[in-house]
Amino acid sequence: MREHVRFQADANFNAQIIKGVWRRQPLVDFQTADAAALSGIPDPEVLARTAQSERVLVSHDYHTMPDHFAEFLTSGQHSPGVLLLHQTLPVAQAIEALLLAWDASDPAEWRDLLTYLPL
User: Fold this and answer.
1) Is the pTM of this model over 0.90?
2) Which CATH number belongs to the domain containing residue 87 in this structure?
3) Is the pLDDT of residue 1 over 80?
């Protein structure tokens, strides 16, 4: 059985997207920010915790996350990856993009990458 990407939602990530992913594919390992106690945590700490749990961070934070991610990597740390989806992206498109990432890729493909979805 092949390994699938494990997702971690950022604190402000749209919960409707997570619910839609689970509705379409209940096997997706998609941890909410509440489950990981990420609410109110600064981005650099979110990146560190997500890296420790070997989860790809999923976020809408186009403004600060790219800079924090670059600093995280520059400091010598590694990340399972970050997927950014614009908050204006229709929920259905966001669900499709995440399901494609989950189904058609290996976790190693996202390592140390910040990727804007949809591709």
Assistant:
1) yes
2) 3.40.50
3) no
